[in-house]
Design a protein that fits this description.
Strand content: 25-35%
Structural class: alpha+beta
Order of helices and strands: HEHEEEEHH
Largest sheet: 5 strands, antiparallel
Number of strands: 5
Strand order of the largest sheet: 1-3-4-5-2
Shape: globular
Radius of gyration: 17 Å
Number of helices: 4
Oligomer: single chain
Helix content: 25-40%
């Protein structure tokens, strides 16, 4: 199985925020943004795995800035690390004001997907080789994020959280 880079999975989805996607403050519903991120991350995961994928978890989402009605929203998703049959995918959300052409990062999310074979069983995915500084940073942090997620879900014993122990020793 040939290793891949995050750029091999890069997915960009662009949309405009319409009235039926807004809350009472005229900002995009969080649930609509989550669905858009999930789709972009699913495509990125499929590109990396070259297989059918399913969402295993939404590990983190930051709603840092509201996304106003009429804004252009761009979701950029890339695989940040591969673990056996699962993949961590980062989604960066950019918002563009179409009137003044300003573009800012508004939110981000981290999803985990699992690749499935034809029998709907987990299948191995290619190794990921990060290239840019940001990709390397996210790649290195993925082990800690994975351990934390497994620990919180009860699928990992605290005594087995080696990466988290290393992190906590720094403090």
């Amino acid at each position: 199985m040939k290793s891949k880079s995050p750029s091999d999975s890069r997915t960009i989805m662009t949309t405009i925020v319409l009235t039926n996607e807004t809350n009472t403050c005229n900002n995009m519903f969080g649930g609509d943004l989550l669905a858009l991120m999930d789709r972009a991350c699913a495509i990125a995961a499929q590109r990396h795995a070259e297989a059918r994928v399913v969402t295993a978890s939404v590990n983190h989402v930051s709603f840092s800035l509201p996304i106003p009605l009429g804004s252009t929203v761009e979701v950029i998703a890339k695989v940040s690390r591969a673990f056996g049959s699962s993949m961590e995918i980062f989604a960066d959300i950019w918002v563009e004001n179409p009137l003044n052409q300003t573009k800012i990062k508004s939110n981000e999310g981290i999803y985990t997907f699992v690749a499935l074979d034809e029998n709907m069983k987990p299948q191995k995915v290619p190794e990921l080789i990060p290239e840019t500084e940001e990709e390397i940073f996210r790649y290195k942090g993925a082990k800690q994020r994975r351990e934390l997620s497994l620990l919180l879900s009860g699928r990992l014993k605290p005594s087995e959280a080696y990466e988290l122990k290393k992190l906590l020793k720094k403090f």
